[in-house]
Specification:
The complex is a heterodimer of chains A (about 425) and B (about 350). In chain A, about 55% of the residues are buried. Chain A has three domains: about 180 residues, 3-Layer(aba) Sandwich (Rossmann fold), CATH 3.40.50; about 160 residues, Ubiquitin-like (UB roll); about 60 residues, no CATH class. Chain A contains 14 helices and 17 strands. In chain A, a hairpin with a 5-residue loop joins strand 8 and strand 9. In chain A, the strands form four sheets. A five-stranded parallel beta sheet of chain A has the order 1-12-11-10-13. The model of chain A has no long low-confidence stretch (mean pLDDT about 85). Chain B has about 350 residues and is mainly alpha-helical. Chain B has 18 helices and two strands. In chain B, strands 1-2 form a two-stranded antiparallel ribbon. The longest helix of chain B has 26 residues. Chain B starts with 19 loop residues before the first helix and ends with a helix. Classes of the chains: A alpha/beta (about 425), B mainly alpha (about 350). The interface between A and B is large, with 51 and 41 residues.
Chain lengths: ~425, ~350
Amino acid sequence: MKHIRSFKHGGISLSGQTGRELPEISNAFLPNHALVALREHEFEAETEIIVHEGQEVCEGQLLAKALGRNAVNVHAPVPGIIRKQLSVQSTNGFVSRAIVISLVGKFNLAGYPAENKFWRTLNRNEILYILQDRGIIRTATGQALHRLVADHQQAASLLVNVLDMEVFSGFEASILNQYTAEVVKACAMLLQASTMTEVIFAVNAQAGDCRRLHAEAQANKLPYRIEYFSPRYPHFFPNQVAEALTGHKSGLSALFVEPSTLVATYQAINSNIPYLNQFVFLGGNALKQPSLLKVRLGTPIGKLIEECGGFVGTPDTIAVNNPLVNGYIEDLDMPVTKTTRALWLLTRPETRQSQQEVCMRCGNCIKACPERLNPYFMNTFIMAGQASLVTAQLERCSGCAACSYVCSSRIPLSVHFKQQQKAGATHEN
Amino acid sequence: MKTEVLPEKVPPHVHRSQTSLQTIRVCLLTLLPAAVWSVLLFGWPAAQVWLISILAAAVTEVAANYALTRRFKLHESAILTGCLIALAMPPEVPWYVPAMATVFALAVVKHFFGGTGANWMNPAMAGVAFAFLNWPAFMLVNLNQLGLTSSGFATRATPFLQNILANSSVVASAGGLSVSSIDRLVTGFLNDGLFNLLNAKLPEGYIDSLLGFNAASIGGSGTLFIIIGSIIMIARRSVKLEIPLAMLLVYGLLMRLIGAGLVDVFLLDNNILLGLTSGGLLLTGFYYATDPVTSPVRRSGMILYGLIIGGLFFVFARWKTYIEGAAFAIIIANTLVSTIDRLAMPSVFKKVGNR
């Protein structure tokens, strides 16, 4: 009998919309022109470009070197010729420089058997160096993984967040299912690079059995435990995971990673392959065939949609990653980056977009807030220009947007809170 | 067809199904059967009250919106306010009573205090109280005079109702309460089929009360339809359920403990069920008290609010200040809402609230 965990207060049930079947992973076609973004995170330092226009690059060749604190190296996802440099607007709202590569020439990594290094002999600094050099980031946030591991030296455990981004589909569970051995070994690598002593797999209680994971982890002598969570949004947010596991929001000192990050980590350390492939889930009712694709970085999003059979209806919104929190795209030429993990082609009945009304004080937002905040009051103060009175509450807001989801007047509460958080941060600086 | 202006696209890109407009529309629809039933029972006077209230609500809302924002806009919540006022009126009031009550409710109480979503007092209840205080003679129709055998009832009943009650030997049962033959039939059927098996017996009089044959106001006549409407609203989760539950709980308890009832001692002697089925108590609980704008936002606050309304409602009903004590109970509770909200605030907010 498994013990199913959940956080205490608030949360919303997306059960009507959550697809539970695990998609199979298939390889996407290669892009003719790859658009490689050079920055994944808003606070990341710019990378220094070391190639020039017209230069021929091979697969996995270094394009831009990391210089700043949080930066990681950028590699060529496909062999080809550098066409030009330009600026692109990322889906998270910041501008990044990018390089266009036209596909020419021979692949020197794909299609060959991967090399196997004796990674168990590597020490901590070597592993961290490989992570930085091969451009590994945490796919959920875009932060450099080597930096995260270095910053979490005090952490007691490594939490593999299989729940992550599980808003409509458990595609991380799918990745874990298909790459169990790689994920388990990558966990062992990260344990080797830090003082963490335990791996916690946070999985959905309804997601089926974990026998392969058990077998694989025991074979690798991994100190692990599997915790089952009930799928009540935002169950995968760090605060809620900590509350579900320990009863306190600050009770867990752990480094959160996702199976997709771990697969890239394994390939970097074991086979010396830089971060070139991205797992992207495409779903939504406007799409013919929902699928989980293994995509080369820089592939235009329109091409992925074609690969899934194209549109079957008019999409109201194409949302990126978590449709409750993240942005949307208008341009189908936008490339897949290291943080593009899911695309939702949502039709009108799915988005239920509607005109914004005045607040009717229905109190739904208060019932939904997992942080025990009062979004109604916070919004009232912000709208009255008195945001400084609710600074303490704004700091506690994790931005899960459960309040905006349930708001019957369609007030974008979470957007207001995020703007205030940003305004407050710049004010302090 | 006018094109809908969509808001700027911001996350979340998915939403829960209900919007506040849908909630108001469903609420209006659930009142439709009650309206039809009241017209069948009371005839043209009831229809007149409905029409005048709704018309006055629409005109006032549009006029107030134009005066304040220079835009012609009709919000459905105004229609709902008009309907709720109509429900509280006795059918035989002159036309200007519901009209003035609605104008006062929407123009003064709602729009002068900030418009939809911002007013602190329940507009419908304020309108009803306004009518009570200005035209008490019309509003104070005593249930006593409207017993099924009384002359007051005979002048009021429509041919439809006369037909229903034709050949009904209206009999005086225990306590002098007169019941119709329909009541006897249904009660007898329930007793034979269901309550016998449980060794219980349903007294007569409830069915009359539920169908509103002896109702004082339009809303009191449709208790059965109000119950059905409430169930629909609860199923849609568009009602603050804590408020009516707390209210009915405290009302039932007080009824049992202190005894006597809604209108007259002999009628509802210590009888919770009869109290619940008559006098618009359910209407008050599920339609008047749950107005989201003027009720607390937190769950604990909602419970406290419900308890206050239930207690006040009982006090007003028991000691017969007014028959419809609901309006005053709710208005008094409305004045406490900001305090209740502050009391029910989580500790992180206390600092803000006490400023």
